[in-house]
Design a protein that fits this description.
The protein is an alpha/beta fold. It has a single domain, classed as TIM Barrel (Alpha-Beta Barrel). The protein is built from eleven helices and 13 strands. It has helices at residues 11-19, 61-71, 90-100, 121-124, 127-140, 156-166, 205-218, 232-241, 250-254, 259-274, 278-281, and strands spanning 25-26, 43-46, 49-52, 81-85, 106-110, 145-149, 170-173, 177-181, 183-184, 189-190, 196-200, 223-226, 243-247. A seven-stranded parallel β-sheet has the order 1-4-5-6-7-12-13. A hairpin with a 2-residue loop joins strand 2 (43-46) and strand 3.
Length: 288
């Protein structure tokens, strides 16, 4: 799957990713109102990954819905499209969901942005609020609801359980780690305009593996693994930890869109070599 935040802002970019072999698409996070985000610089490469503080820049759900709805007449998508949506409260999520209901195939609830106080961990670190948001969204849609969670909490399992009890169909883990910071040593100033940003890339994969492993033990619904995947064996590792599906994000920024096909082919080869099915691979690192 395409992870939220990478090449998911327009119809054309999503179509391009679909043509490269993605099995499902997640849009950039869309909010209740247009949001310019933070001024540049908004990304910086660090050893082992990237820091980013985009600030949830987006055109708002009404403009996004009009653009996507109009362009989809040019040709519908052949794979599922999930809208990543964010808000400060349940009513925000419900308004956006209602506005995009007829355009997308499901929703990924972004409950985990690490560099937005109002829309990030203030929402996603409270199991009761997470459960309420999912529960209220569940009342108004029968389409798939995925809760995307942050590793920057005391117990990601308790958040996952709250989302499951609220009616989520799947858990996505993880969002970026942090926030972290990079300083330009000559000017002695933070590189990012926001100062702090979320860490992604290969360096966070061990955290993603641990979170997926723990969530798999705690819930019955499927887990989507994301964080540091750059090749087929990374995807295998996340699946052995408990992920049914995986998402690609930073690897596309660093590499190439052909990774979707390369990883799919690598997974198939791994399963054939080991005489396993996909179902047997998922969660196989767990005792018993």
């Amino acid at each position: 799957m395409l992870a939220a935040g990478i090449l998911g802002e327009t119809y054309d970019s999503l179509k391009r990713v679909e043509e490269e072999g993605a099995g499902a698409l997640v849009t950039k996070s869309i909010g209740p109102e247009p949001n310019p985000g933070y001024p540049g610089p908004i990304t910086v490469e660090v050893r082992g990954g990237f820091l980013n503080a985009v600030g949830l820049a987006n055109p708002g759900f009404e403009a996004f819905g009009m653009e996507m709805g109009g362009r989809m007449r040019d040709g519908p998508f052949e794979v599922p499209v999930l809208a990543s949506i964010y808000g400060a409260c349940a009513s925000d999520f419900m308004n956006i969901l209602g506005g995009l209901e007829d355009i997308v195939d499901g929703f990924e609830l972004n409950l985990s942005c690490p560099h937005s106080e109002k829309f990030g961990l203030a929402v996603g670190s409270d199991p009761e609020l997470v459960g309420e948001i999912v529960r209220e969204c569940r009342k108004i849609t029968g389409k798939p609801l995925v809760a995307k969670l942050s590793p920057n909490v005391n117990s990601i399992e308790s958040i996952a359980v709250a989302a499951e009890e609220g009616g989520a169909d799947a858990i996505c883990a993880i969002n970026t780690v942090g926030p972290g910071m990079a300083i330009e040593v000559e000017s002695r100033r933070p590189v990012l305009s926001n100062g702090r940003g979320g860490l992604s890339g290969p360096c966070i994969k061990p955290i993603a593996v641990r979170c997926v492993y723990d969530i798999y033990e705690a819930v019955e619904i499927p887990v989507i693994g994301v964080g540091g995947i750059a090749d087929a064996l990374d995807a295998v590792e996340l699946m052995e930890a408990g992920a049914t599906w995986v998402q690609l994000g930073t690897a596309l920024y660093l590499g190439r869109l052909s990774l979707f096909r390369e990883i799919a082919e690598g997974l198939e080869e791994f399963l054939e070599t080991h005489g396993m099915t996909h179902g047997e691979l998922v969660g196989s690192a767990h005792p018993g």
